[in-house]
Amino acid sequence: MNIGFWVCAASSIVFLLLALLFTLLKGKAAILISGFSTMPKEQRRLYDTKWMSKDHRNMFLIWTAILGVGALLSLLISTYMAIPAFIVWIIMFFKDVHLDEEKAFGKYKF
After folding, report:
1. Is 4 within 8 Å of 77 (Cβ atoms)?
2. Which domain holds residue 28?
3. Rounded CA gap, 16 and 50, in Å?
4. pTM
5. Distance CA 83, CA 20 (A)
6. What is the pLDDT of residue 106?
7. Which of 2, 67, 70, 93 is the most exposed place for a label (fewest CB within 10 A)?
8. Who wins on pLDDT, 11 or 101?
9. What InterPro entries does UniProt report for this protein, alphabetically (predicted)?
10. How far apart are CA 93 and CA 110, in angstroms?
């Protein structure tokens, strides 16, 4: 049983579904972004939700590709090929996570 393949494939499918959700809901999907949903409505109006949703959709698609390649390589080469895929994903994840509201959403202000 190739656990690397299954973990990467399942994660890739989850991120693909999230990307599809953000594609279908467009600007309304911004409410699903952590930190944005806890803002007061008056403050949320100051941000471009369509741009925010598009950026998160693209981020999920990149994560899907990284983990999809990891799944494919772990199936074709070695189950250990999933480890570099997850390391790259973790680096990408922490690059995009911000604890400060201004750093997280500042570029989306009108």
Report:
1. no
2. 3-108
3. 19
4. 0.89
5. 26
6. 86
7. 93
8. 11
9. UCP037672 (IPR017259)
10. 26
pLDDT for 59-83, tens place per residue? 999 999 999 999 999 999 999 999 9
Per-residue pLDDT, 70: 96
> CA of 93: how far to CAs of 48, 53, 61, in Å?
22, 16, 13
* Structure-block tokens of residue 46: 């100051």
Give me the amino acid identity at 31. Answer: I
- Please give the full DSSP string across 15-73, using - where no structure is assigned: HHHHHHHHHHHGGGGGGGSTTTTTS-HHHHTTB-HHHHHHHHHHHHHHHHHHHHHHHHH
DSSP letters for 79-102: GGGHHHHHHHHHHHHHHH--SSHH
Number of folded domains that form the chain: 1
- Provide the phi-psi class of 76: left if phi over 0, else alpha when psi is between -120 and 50, else beta: alpha
Amino acid at 6: W
Query: In b/e form, how buried is each residue of 87-110, taking b as 16+ CB within 10 angstroms?
Result: eebeeeeeeeeeeeeeebbeebee
> How many residues does the structure list for the chain?
110
